[in-house]
């Protein structure tokens, strides 16, 4: 409490009527990365006490749904679910509220209860963020956006790679409203990928077409992959380097007989 009373964002939230100082983190993240746009359908995971729900509703003006294990006090224009984000039953409830098309944006500012053992707390944070990512992959529309809080530590980079495998644009960002002594950072993923392949996947292909730039072009499960440095008829093993919403790029790792 003493720390809060020295915190300008604590008093700012009090003065402006927000439930939590964390509200300003989402404002700052959105100002930097434009995650939520007007009319978006937003799902907030681990949403209690509701500070991010208030901001999401204010920015989007669209449908906003909050999910938490605890009941969230009512917010005008916001729908809430008491449920576990790892449960299929909860996923079904989310779709009942947002519609079969899914959500434009999934956000998560949740954190585990801290024990004071940093390695243990970091591992629990990563486990929670992976649950949020798994949930987001089930409910996001193609090209939707994702924001999640993570505690920095030795597993952070591997989690960042998991997000990169599922979104076109990925950045980590620390808003000014985060306390200076906090190890929290936010991972931003934009343009959710629904392609049938991912970075580092390998395939054996025969180059049957050339694109307008001269690169080879192959179809993998009806998805276009461009391959540099090949000629028509080449039979090669390729490795996916980068995936975009409508196509991917690959490099040759070996020639096949």
UniProtKB/TrEMBL annotation:
One of its GO terms (molecular function) is rRNA (uridine-2'-O-)-methyltransferase activity. Its EC number is 2.1.1.166. Pfam families: FtsJ, TRAM. Keywords: Cytoplasm, Methyltransferase, rRNA processing, S-adenosyl-L-methionine, Transferase. It catalyses: uridine(2552) in 23S rRNA + S-adenosyl-L-methionine = 2'-O-methyluridine(2552) in 23S rRNA + S-adenosyl-L-homocysteine + H(+). Its main location: cytoplasm. Residues 196-254 form the TRAM domain. One of its GO terms (cellular component) is cytoplasm. S-adenosyl-L-methionine binds at residues 50, 52, 68, 84, 109. It is found in: Cytoplasm. The active site is at residue 149. InterPro entries: NA-bd_OB-fold, RNA_methyltr_RlmE, RNA_MeTrfase_FtsJ_dom, rRNA-MeTfrase_E, SAM-dependent_MTases_sf, TRAM_dom. Belongs to the class I-like SAM-binding methyltransferase superfamily. RNA methyltransferase RlmE family. Specifically methylates the uridine in position 2552 of 23S rRNA at the 2'-O position of the ribose in the fully assembled 50S ribosomal subunit. This is Ribosomal RNA large subunit methyltransferase E. It comes from Methanolobus profundi. The lineage of its organism: Archaea, Methanobacteriati, Methanobacteriota, Stenosarchaea group, Methanomicrobia.
